[in-house]
Specification:
The protein is mainly beta and 136 residues long. The chain has two helices and five strands.
């Protein structure tokens, strides 16, 4: 799932769920065994190839139709640390695993397979509308 409005005109927007077709690692990344169950990277990937359902982007030479490059974004943010402020910088792809999302996020999506939890949430507040949105 995309976590930032990267390029809304190309459907690379916050909440977009797409298929990753390939991850191109940083050239400084140490080698690892492909059979390893867990791999911890030392650097963000150089870029990620993402297969879109559709896009207005021109097809890039050497890539299949509807595949786009997603590059890491650089962000700076400041937090309160003790009695002072600390500025942090990070560089990472604007994506996360999409294993669950709210009924609000599911609106307007076609989801081929899903499990819908319609139990009353711990904080209450589940309405028939929430169930309708999740199941429609």
């Amino acid at each position: 799932m995309v976590t930032f409005n990267v390029e809304t005109d190309l459907d690379l927007a916050n909440g977009a769920c797409r298929e990753i077709t390939e991850i191109i690692l940083d050239e400084c990344e140490p080698m690892f065994l492909l059979s390893a169950l867990i791999v911890e990277l030392k650097y963000p990937p150089t870029y990620i190839l993402v297969k879109m359902d559709h896009t207005k982007a021109v097809q890039l030479e050497g890539l299949e139709k509807d595949v786009l490059l997603l590059v890491p974004l650089k962000r700076t943010f400041t937090i309160v640390h003790g009695k002072g402020l600390k500025t942090n910088r990070r560089r990472q792809p604007p994506i996360t695993q999409a294993y669950s999302f709210t009924d609000y996020r599911s609106q307007g999506r076609t989801i081929s397979h899903c499990i819908v939890d319609i139990a009353t949430p711990p904080g209450g507040g589940l309405t028939p509308f929430n169930m309708y949105v999740a199941l429609s």
